[in-house]
Specification:
Layout lengths: L11 H9 L10 E3 H7 L26 E3 L8 H14 L2 H11 L4 H12 L58 H9 L2 E5 L4 E3 L7 E7 L2 E6 L5 E7 L4 E2 L1 H6 L6 E4 L3 E7 H10 L1 H27 L3 H12 L8 E4 L4 H8 L3 H13 L3 E4 L2 E4 L2 H8 L1
Antiparallel strand pairs: 1-2, 3-10, 4-9, 5-8, 5-10, 6-7, 6-9, 11-13, 12-13
């Protein structure tokens, strides 16, 4: 170490020795006291090289102040610093961040300026370091998201809390009553929103009341002792489930399971019977709903029992899903799986898969992603007879 009481020019003998280790004798380096250096730069982040071998200026020199030669660091490639910035921003690489921080403390002015400008623009710091200039984007006020005008509803359904305010009522809906009757029904109704796959009631269960479907679809099914499932019907909005059991007091005829997210109104059996006695309109709608169910049951028995083959049952099922429009090709959104088709026609899933392949080979149908296209409606109707 160079030990002296003050900064002074080196004599010629010392200059010769400095030339041997690569320092210029004609331009003696500036001196900086270690005390100042230790105060400005922490030891863990010091960028100075190891001190030169000790050069004794005097055997008796004893002082608490040491001097180190300054050495200018080479400039770091700006493109390398920019690459470190990208690694930190995109992948949050801590190694790249430390490279930028080390360059920001470099003794090279250009390297220090490049690194600090990149750090100031970082989204991780946002100009938060005291020694860095604040990012232009940090001073901009954050854009506030617009307030929600409507509260989100479960499963994306438009939930109606009051039956008197419902605007989705159509002709044939069980709840299509006049306003005084609708208010009486609304007072005893219990509304709920359920996801797909929820069980409303089970076949043989004692009736608790009826479920009026406000939106969504519900499958009615029966199960054999062997566990074979047969889907009898898919009820839609406006229909009442469990009417026959609630009036007769006998167990539910089928199992009701939601096929899609549904909003339902539940009316218990006691209040239903009271409403039927006090409001003739509710009794009339109940009789009409039971009559439609009776007619549909006879039609389903005819289709399931009198149809000779599983191919005819499948053809009838596909035609029931198609709209009654006379066109060359009819498109059906294929929402049913092969398993559900099998449960609707009383066959196995393997049989349905084989029958659909036969229909495609005969060019009666074709599949376009999730959509089924009936190419020859006349031939499919002949097969369903």
């Amino acid at each position: 170490m160079l030990a002296t009481n003050r900064c002074e020019l080196l004599d010629s003998n010392v200059a010769k020795r400095l030339v041997e280790i690569g320092l210029s004798a004609s331009n003696p380096p500036r001196c900086r006291q270690r005390a100042d250096y230790s105060e400005s730069v922490p030891e863990s982040t010091a960028l100075w090289p190891d001190p030169l071998p000790a050069l004794a200026a005097s055997d008796s020199a004893q002082t608490s102040t040491s001097l180190l030669p300054l050495k200018l660091e080479p400039e770091v490639d700006p493109f390398y610093l920019f690459a470190c910035y990208l690694e930190w921003e995109r992948r949050e690489d801590p190694g790249a961040a430390w490279e930028l921080i080390a360059a920001a403390n470099s003794s090279n002015g250009d390297t220090r300026a490049h690194a600090r400008s990149l750090l100031a623009a970082s989204r991780h710091l946002g100009g938060g370091l005291g020694q860095l200039s604040p990012s232009p984007s940090a001073s901009r006020p954050k854009r506030l998201s617009p307030p929600e005008t409507e509260m989100r509803t479960p499963y994306g359904l438009e939930v109606v809390e009051d039956c008197t305010e419902c605007v989705d009522t159509k002709t044939g809906f069980f709840c299509g009553f006049d306003e005084p009757v609708l208010q009486a029904l609304n007072q005893v109704s219990h509304r709920s929103t359920l996801p797909a796959g929820a069980i409303l009631f089970v076949e043989g269960q004692s009736p608790r009341g009826i479920f009026i479907i406000c939106s969504g679809k519900v499958n009615l099914s029966t199960t054999s002792r062997e566990g074979k499932i047969l889907i009898l019907k898919t009820s839609e909005a406006g229909e009442a489930l469990g009417l026959s059991a609630a009036i007769s007091g006998m167990g539910y005829e089928a199992t009701a399971e939601t096929a899609t997210p549904c909003q339902l109104n539940f009316v218990d059996r006691k209040h239903l019977l009271e409403l039927m006695q006090s409001h003739a309109e509710i009794g009339l709608h109940t009789a009409q709903a039971l009559s439609r169910d009776f007619h549909a049951a006879y039609r389903d028995i005819h289709d399931l029992v009198l149809t000779r083959s599983s191919a005819g049952k499948l053809a009838r099922l596909l035609l029931s899903q198609a709209p009654d429009v006379e066109t060359d090709e009819t498109r059906i959104p294929s929402s049913m799986t092969h398993e559900e088709m099998a449960q609707r026609i009383g066959a196995s899933r393997e049989t349905v898969t084989r029958l659909l392949s036969d229909l495609k080979r005969k060019q009666l149908i074709r599949l376009e992603g999730p959509t089924m296209v009936i190419r020859n409606r006349t031939a499919l109707e002949a097969l369903a007879v």
